[in-house]
Design a protein that fits this description.
The chain is of the alpha+beta class and about 270 residues long. The chain folds into two domains: about 45 residues; about 220 residues, Jelly Rolls. Strands 1, 3, 4, 6, 9, 10, 11 and 13 form an eight-stranded antiparallel sheet that branches. Strands 2-5-12-7-8 form a five-stranded antiparallel sheet, with no helix packed on it. A hairpin with a 2-residue loop joins β9 and β10. The longest helix is centred in the first third of the chain and has 43 residues. It is globular and about 45 Å long.
Amino acid sequence: MKAKYLLLFIAAFSFISFTGCKSGNKGKSKTTEKSEKVTETSEESVPPNTLTPEEKKEGWVLLFDGKTHNGWRGYKKDHFPSGWEVVDGTLHCKGSGRGEAGSKEGGDIIYDKKFKNFDLKLDWKISKGGNSGIFYLGQETKPELWMTAPEMQVLDNANHPDAKLGKNGDRQAGSLYDLIPANPQNAKPYGQWNSVEIIVYRGTVVHKMNGETVLEYHLWTPEWDSLVAHSKFPKYNPDWANVAEEGYIGLQDHGDDVWYRNIKIKEL
């Protein structure tokens, strides 16, 4: 009898230990999953046009608050053109359907401060068949901003003819317009947001799109001078290659609907 009771006791103890161990593993798994979900939610729930505490510590500054066009004005103008609007947390260029001619109420816009060495981040979304661009180091010395400033191309690659013009895709999204193609070409289709980054530091320029470096070049070098000399730009500005060390950031009105948000900068 004693042996029988002893065996029953051992069996019961083993069952309780196994159940408790299994229950403990379940609890740990749920806690871990919950922690991971909270982390993911926190990262995804950061609202557009805001800075995280980490970004503020690192020196990032918003150039667009999502509510007003404060700090922005038309190129060679003292006001914000009516061809642009702030809507749904974006800076929206209202398409005129007139291509490069844009509209009388539109035109390119610039942020009213010059930047020298910087890291610029922003998101863009283009309409079907749309075209636009992001300018940097621009000057107000010519009739058009593009005559003075390098441009990161913004384009619906699938539907705009410019994607097939130029050389080796150097007019596709993310490219240094008409000069250096973005490689890899990872732009998302029209109607979807693309995140880009432009880094300018002592003549070195880097374009990033959707998390990948797509090109790098160096201003004021013999290679740069040769590249520009074989482009269309000297025809409109013989001194185009001599890009200024400090200039404006601008957004292009190319006659098509385009939206920008999350515009932030860190001076280097």
